[in-house]
Specification:
- With 246 residues, the protein is an alpha/beta fold.
- The chain has one domain: 3-Layer(aba) Sandwich (Rossmann fold).
- It contains six helices and 13 strands.
- Strand 9 and strand 10 form a beta hairpin.
- Helix 2 crosses helix 5.
- It is globular and about 65 Å long.
Length: 246
């Protein structure tokens, strides 16, 4: 089975976030980037598990500049066979999805996996857009995936229960928590990643449908009030008079 896993870089959650040029551009100075956790922990690791059980090949793809290759090598160290970098600045979800779909069209993948979202934009859009561009079935936010002959059996968490879905291959799936367990690259994987093939692909022309006008930092959190566990009356008073429902 040929599996394509879409990965994206995301700022490490400990990074200090700031904006420049009158709050119209994200300031990357001093920001440490990581593989987006949903792409790495769930989509990539599940792809590797499927390869280990059933054979095949796992290719990772990202849309980004040469500076992103350090993040790509991290994904290779976890176990992917090869990587593709589409040499472009990802403008928005649509731009990213079309670039990946155009690459996938010419390489006959049996399965395309994405994380359910990126932790910096939380859009959950790329997987569905790839599926639409390729005219493939799409299942979002899957928590379990099993190969079933020429198709897949998947589970999704819905309100009040678990939904079981069967889909034929090829297909596009976005992966959520529960799909797999995080893997830590070992020294052998890190060394092997240095020599694994990384192909650079030129982007296709895509119309810009989105423009970011400005960024804003969230409002600062108010100070925490510590109440003695013995002072129930004060706690009740504060809940009645000061607490806000968000």
């Amino acid at each position: 089975m040929k599996i394509l896993v879409c990965i994206s870089k995301s700022p490490d959650t400990t990074s200090k976030i700031a904006f420049t040029e009158d709050n119209t551009k994200f300031d990357e100075n001093g920001v440490q980037y990581i593989v987006n956790p949903y792409d790495e922990w769930y989509a990539l690791v599940r792809a590797l598990e499927m390869k280990e059980s059933n054979g095949g090949q796992v290719t990772i793809v990202t849309v980004g500049a040469v500076a992103d290759e350090a993040v790509i090598r991290k994904a290779l160290a976890i176990g992917a066979d090869e990587a593709v970098r589409i040499d472009a600045d990802p403008k928005d979800a649509h731009y990213t999805a079309i670039q990946i779909a155009e690459y996938a069209k010419n390489n006959a993948f049996d399965l395309i996996l994405t994380g359910k979202e990126t932790i910096n934009y939380n859009g959950s859009q790329v997987g569905g857009m790839i599926a639409e561009a390729l005219d493939l079935p799409y299942v979002s936010i899957a928590t379990k995936l099993d190969v079933n002959g020429n198709g897949l059996t998947l589970e999704r968490e819905i309100v009040g229960g678990i939904q079981v879905v069967e889909v034929s291959l090829p297909a596009v799936i976005s992966c959520a928590k529960g799909m797999a367990e995080q893997r830590i690259p070992n020294m052998r994987g890190i060394m092997a990643a240095r020599t694994k093939p990384l192909q650079v692909v030129s982007p296709v022309a895509v119309e810009d449908l989105t423009k970011f006008s400005s960024y804003e930092m969230p409002n600062s959190k108010s100070a925490v009030k510590m109440i003695s566990p013995d002072n129930i009356d004060e706690l009740v008073s504060l809940l009645h008079n000061e607490a806000k429902v968000i």
